[in-house]
Amino acid sequence: MTKLYTGIKGLRARIDAEGRTRLAEESSTPSVKAFAENHGFQPQQVYSWRSRDIAVPVRLLEATSVEPNHIVSLKGAGRSLEVRKPELPFNPSNELLTRLHESVHRDRNAAPMYMTDDRGNLKRFRELLAELGDVETTAYDREVRYQLRYPKFLDRILRDREFKPVFSALVDENGSVGERYLRAKGKTVRIDEFEGKLCSMRNRYRLAAAKGDALSEKIE
Questions:
Q1: Which residues constitute the domain of residue 17?
Q2: How far apart are the first and last CA of the chain?
Q3: 6 in any annotated domain
Q4: Per-residue pLDDT at 183 exceeds 80
Q5: Number of domains making up the chain
Q6: Using one digit for the tens of pLDDT, what is the confidence trace for 77-107?
Q7: Cα–Cα distance for residue pair 155/137, rounded to 1 Å
Q8: Which of these, 1, 156, 162, 164, is most buried using a 10 Å CB contact count?
């Protein structure tokens, strides 16, 4: 298989029936014992992985011709959250990466948590994650703050990507909307020149008010 995120320790994948058949065939050549030894696995591990419908190390798949289109889900080590039906290779949007770098916090174990005090921002972050596949998340409502946990391995993949910051996302996450200007990260844009779309419910209301049509805009 094409090299796929090999720097992520413990990354595992479940594969479809065709992929399992191919894995079984290729791991038997010339023998399971020889295949295992050649690629740094124990023979009993390979026997187990090829005979059961379970997540197997991506490193194992990379030793075969099983391609990413046979992967039905990805997950990290242990009982981690997973991504089902992943769109591989991941191609995150600039907007997703902007919001991730602005509002994702990590605990001492590097587990990521998206944090916001605006429901519109939370909804948008979920939508952007969904572009990568069926991303398993856990949401928490802490009174005035929303928190969203998503797979640690996915965060590892995304956080090192290069990206072009999206101004509207910067405004949503940590910027401001005034009577005449939008500001974020040292950049100022006149309201009558702004062509982007805001997702924060609070900022959408402020933008509509500044334009003079607060009563006519529907804030969902």
A1: 12-80
A2: 45
A3: no
A4: yes
A5: 2
A6: 888 899 999 999 999 999 999 999 999 999 9
A7: 12
A8: 1
